[in-house]
Amino acid sequence: MKKVPFFRQKFTDENISNILTDVEGILKSGQLIFNKNVKKFEDAFAKEIGVKFAVSVNSCTTALMICLEYFNRRKLKVLLPSATFITTANSVLFTGAEPVFVDIQEGTLLLDFDDIKKKAGNDVSGLILVHLLGFMNKDMEKIRDFCSNNDLFLIEDAAHAIGTSLNGVKAGALGDAGCFSFYATKHVSTGGAGGMITTNDEDLCEFARKKRIFGKDSATGVIEYFGNDWFLDEIRASIGYSHLSFLKENLSLREKSAKKYDAAFRDFKNLKIFESTEGSTASLYQYAVLLSEGIDRSLLMKRLSQEHGIDTKPIYDPCHLETIYQSLPAYKNVSLPVTEDILNRSLAIPFFPGISGEEIETVLDAMRQEVG
Ligand SMILES: Cc1ncc(COP(=O)(O)O)c(C=O)c1O
Predict the structure, then answer these.
(1) Using 50, 70 and 90 to split pLDDT, how confident is the model at 2?
(2) What CATH number does residue 342 fall under?
(3) Quick check: is 216 in a domain?
(4) Looking at the domain assignment, is residue 4 inside a domain?
């Protein structure tokens, strides 16, 4: 039986050759941090997203923490989805604030504007909006207006959404700041871990540049903030820079594969696909389907793996139901019925830039046999 992996990262031969040349240059130069590769990567990334500033850091979680500290000086509550990766929520706790989870809209993976309005009380300072799997919220513009009219900051967690856009404006350029991840599995990877803050706010840019290197003003040497060594080094920046040059092709490969899945799954009786919002392009990070009620997801995953050699995963468990959040009294009685239902029924299937037509057909055949 031929196995289909859940994910396989792709660097082109040209990427690899450029990275090797750059790494050799970095090692020979003896300048391992804050040199031309970091600058090159930041400038190219700012251009890609369409913002004035991009500040590289060692992860998206760090990016979120720095932005939260900047926007949430009074450490008030922060609204965010529970349908996200756990460290989106942890970043709020790490900065001494309280995460308040908002439910998602029926049939989607994205925040419900009505629940945002309901929970945005006086003790809330802002919102982290996650473009989960690369999808854009259908109420994005309304949410943005609501935030600016109510003095709430808006941070986009764009870890899944490099290249997603709404009416021509890229994710990461729609809110007050965007936070990106270059983790090993992301569209653009710096090898292991890495992240970027995008913004048009010069003060945030200056703040982040100091926070990421021990809180120090590099011109005066004065320690102005409590910081740490949260920067991205030259070698990882060079990997990210080269991989960024593959983004356009990467997104087009993903789009072609997603279209094949979409077209086939539209005929399935026991599942639904997640659709893009009108006016937006989704730069899919993973491909997930929503299984009909009554389908035993664990059994399906087991059968797909054992009978067909296909690796699948739930997207995420809801953050508020994770053991560590359940150990905190504030989250014991939180109920987010749509989040719980949708994350329980969704299944991410093999999807990556180099997935072959044959691999897609293998997945579709297996899915047809099991849930068609
Ligand atoms: C939606 C989302 N936000 C934040 C993060 C954290 O990214 P990092 O691992 O770069 O800190 C991830 C990581 O996968 C993520 O999926």
Answers:
(1) confident
(2) 3.90.1150.10
(3) yes
(4) no
Which atom of ligand 1 approaches the CA of 194 most closely? Answer: 10
Q: Are residues 74 and 215 in the same domain?
A: yes
- Helix (H), strand (E), coil (C) string for the chain: CCCECCCCCCCCHHHHHHHHHHHHHHHHHCCCCCCHHHHHHHHHHHHHHCCCEEEEECCHHHHHHHHHHHHCCCCCEEEEECCCCHHHHHHHHHCCCCEEEECECCCCCCECHHHHHHHCCCCEEEEEEECHHHCCCCCHHHHHHHHHHCCCEEEEECCCCCCCEECCEECCCCCCEEEEECCCCCCCCCCCCCEEEEECCHHHHHHHHHHCECCECCCCCCECCCCCECCCCHHHHHHHHHHHCCHHHHHHHHHHHHHHHHHHHCCCCCEEECCCCCCEECCCCCEEEEECCCCCHHHHHHHHHHHHCECCECCCCCHHHCHHHHCCHHHCCCCCHHHHHHHHHEEEECCCCCCCHHHHHHHHHHHHHHHC
pLDDT exceeds 90 at position 184 = yes
User: Is 344 domain-assigned?
Assistant: yes
Note the pLDDT tens digit of each residue in 235-275.
Answer: 999 999 999 999 999 999 999 999 999 999 999 999 999 99
**Ligand 1 near 181 CB (within 6 A):** yes
Q: Find the CATH number of the domain harbouring 161.
A: 3.40.640.10
Q: Cα of 161 to ligand 1 centre, how many Å?
A: 11
Count of domains for the chain: 2
The answer, yes or no, to whether any atom of ligand 1 lies below 6 A from the CB of 231, is no
Q: 87 CA to middle of ligand 1, Å? A: 6
pTM: predicted TM-score of the whole model, two decimal places: 0.98
pLDDT at residue 18 in the model: 98
299 shares a domain with 199:
no
Give me ligand 1 centre to Cα 372, in Å.
32
Domain that holds residue 29: 13-244
